[in-house]
Amino acid sequence: MDDLFGIPAPLLFGQLLLGLINGAFYAMLSLGLAVIFGLLNIVNMAHGAQFMMGAFAAWMLLNWLGIGYWAALLLAPIIVGITGIILEKAFISRLYKLDHLYGLLLTFGLALIIEGVFRNEFGSSGLPYRIPAELSGAWDLGFMFMPVYRGWVVIAALILCLATWLIIEKTRLGAYLRAATENAALVQAFGVNVPRMVTLTYGFGVALAAVGGVLAAPIYSVNPQMGSNLIIVVFAVVVIGGMGSILGSILTGFALGIVEGLTKVFWPEASATVIFVIMAIVLLARPAGLFGRA
Amino acid sequence: MPQPMTNRRSLIAGATATATALGGLPWRGARAQANTLKIGVLNDQSGVYRDISGPTSVACVRQAVQDLGSRGLNVEVVVADHQNKPDVGSNIARQWIDRDGVDVIVDVPNSAVALAVNGVVRERNKVYLNSTAATADLTGPQCSPNTVHWTYDTWMLARSTGGAMVKAGGDSWFFITADYAFGHALERDTGNFVKAQNGRVVGAVRHPLGNTDYSSFLVQAQSSRAKVIGLANAGTDTVNAVKQLAEFGITRRGTKVAVLLMFINDVHGLGLQAAQGLVCTETFYWDLNDRTRAFTNKVRPHLAGNMPAMSHAGCYSAVLHYLKAAADMGADKAKASGAEAVARMKAMPTEDDCFGAGSIRADGRKIHPSYLFEVKSPAESKGPWDYYKLLQTTPAEEAFRPLAEGACPLVRS
User: Where does the chain cross the membrane (chain A) (predicted)?
Assistant: First the structure.
């Protein structure tokens, strides 16, 4: 068996693949954050809580209404997206004229409240959610067993990321959105309802977080803290990629997933820290992030 | 933030009588306060260990106060959240003792916080009844005349779960360990057991607390070709790891999994589908016998849907025993010296619905039987929380580390 850096090659390949899968989650979550920040200038600290709400929505649909995974994949993001729209209308829309810091503090407070409510209602140990029968089992890839569900997560994340990027960069709607962030007054003068567009964009960003939550429910513990563990890492991903850069956050998400995966082999204790070390280095060298515009 | 929750059984007549007896001091409200035993429940109210400690522990402590009945004691219960941070925990302990006159600190999950609080309580000569932390160091090198470690510890888990696994042929181990005091202690104690029975530890990875994805570690564990994967972590970390073990089909291909610490609340969070067949050790199960069922029925209405785990039962049992000792020696004496109160607790046999008859050793270790359980399959379970079948019982004398092996300075060899 060939060794690379003292690690058997098959093990290394396995780790690269697993890193890519985790990167898919980072990419999906940082995508939503980038969309919201890029178009609304709001640092959405409630994103982790909304990811968690997606997973809980899937659990509630299954246990209270008997609605399974595939329908939940569509319904949960719509439900959570609507709660996002309500939040935007009621609170966030009042902050667009103020400094970023206010949006950050407001959404952080909202995240704490949402998590607190869920913790009071459901406790901290989590709730069970099964892998759908069609996606259970594993493929033998020779160098490792690859659960079918993980493969599905990567495919779903890639489709979602690509579609979002295409909508924002290549369609007329996306062009309106981008124009509105540059000069809202001018776009409004052309007869585009900018406030509604902004509200829907926030709802869409939140729905992206909720899709991530539904995808995570069968493999991660569905508990009120599940988002707060991920969100800090995802913020680092967005900062490294360049705040507001959609392509940047997708590519950085996948890349950092791989870096983290490799760290888990070479120095597991540091796996929670490595992304922040990279963030510090990137900020020193390129303050606007890898793909950001200064 | 510490928030006072009063639970007094005041016997004003008794307090007045004591005040008069003490040389005709002018009676003031403060006199009655001075005799109040103040119990501080310090635990995780908002994080990963909320369900195995949190508000349920508080309810069990209050149940103990209620069950003791009025035996001349005023008791007040206060609560605080240590947020799983050793500095926050030891600061609250200091503030409680120095400013608020707290006499007893109870519960304290998270070994790192538990060890920090251990020092504070000893320094100020108060009483420390730890139920939910796991590290066996509390009755080993760090043992204290002010501390009783009640419910379980890493050595006992290692002996029960680890011992059973090795006996069943699992002689090579790979550990997935939470990278802090608790995980290290659990890995060390289990590893010692495995080696003592001619087994081998072929590898270990240490993951940060609150890690979400275990796939990378599971693949490493699998490629080590160990027969047993030992999970030396707790709470959400364990739940995530077990869920992903099932996803990667590791158990189906013959590798055994030793979940070294699991509470019934974790099983509830996993669901029987994912948890079935796992083996774990607890010292209390609500459905163990008539007495545990009676206790559960009594306390359950105050738990907002949660079920008491061994950690909660430990809070109940420890506080009940402390109050018995305090009633026996008098509240004044119990307040004056924590070490003397603990010495009195050690001199008296323990007896309660949760653990039956037991005792406390010189090193502060509470002794009772431990139970090895297997998680039922969904078909075997008759309903919610009917999760365990008993595989074997380790008698109290054998369940915990022998007194002489703990390196506790309080024990003269």
Answer: 12-35, 42-61, 67-87, 99-118, 149-168, 200-220, 232-259, 265-285
